[in-house]
Structures are given as structure tokens and as C-alpha cells.
Amino acid sequence: MEERTTNPTEQKLFRAFMQFKKAGWHQRSIEGCTPSEIRVMFCIKRGVKPDAHEMKVSEISKHLHVTAPTITQLLKGLEAQGLIERRVDPTDRRAVGIQLTQKGERVTQKAEEAFFATFHGLIEYLGEEQSNQLAELLSQVSRYFEEKAASVQYPSLNGNEEA
Length: 163
What we know:
Blueprint: H1 8-23, H2 35-47, E1 55-56, H3 57-64, H4 68-80, E2 84-88, E3 96-100, H5 102-126, H6 128-153
Antiparallel strand pairs: 1-3, 2-3
């Protein structure tokens, strides 16, 4: 079997992605909360509709592309820490609304400040122009991987398949 030769640009991209992963820039614990718990709290804070004050587990699951049982486990931990509260819907006892407590609001605010401080530092390091270029390139990379995933999930019909 012939060994595949890698072009230098492929090698450079691969190394850059591996270094980026190793940096762990977003894997910080804040106020004892894991990055996953912080993402759930951000989702609750941002996902609440103006006419509603809480979210359902299914909504959180859908927003974060994570299974409902996974979200339920994360919510148990957040509830034990006093960061969220669950409320049973009086009109539909099966529906449970999730909302941040005041403590949850404070921790989410602190996490948001830390998150944006990271990006502020990156902008200072790279400069405004390169930061904007990086943002555009990362958006393009994301689109590429989304399109690639979609083409694997939903291959185009080539006329030989039955509909």
C-alpha cells in the first residue's frame, strides 16, 4: 500500500488546529462551574423569550445540540449549586421551566466578562485588522465543516436512487 504524502499546507493547518486544541482557551472553570455548565447557563440567559421567564429542557437541548438526558444531568448539578431553579408548569404538570437564580445570573455575568476579556486580549495582541480577518476565516472554516457534515448526512441523489 502506498503511503500518502501530505502537502506542507495540510501539515501546517493540522499543527495549528492541534495547537489551538491544546491551548484549552475556553476550558476554564468559573466559580466552580464547568465549561458545559456555563454553556447551559448562557443558553438559559440568552434563550429566554421576552414574554417568558424560563426555558424547557427540550429547548436547551435543541439550542446546544445535546441530548435531553445530558442537559438534565447538567441541570441537576446547577440546581444543587443554587444556580438554577425548576418550576413545574401549573397548566401542564409534565412541563418544567428552568430559570437562573440571582446567584446563577451573577456567575453567568462573571463568566461572560471573563470570556470577553479573553477576546479583548486577543484583539490587542493581533490588532483590529487581523482580528477581523481571523473572525472571517473562522466563519468560513465553520461553514466548510457544516457543509461537509451535511453532505455526509444527506448525500445528493445522483438519479440512481429511488425517492
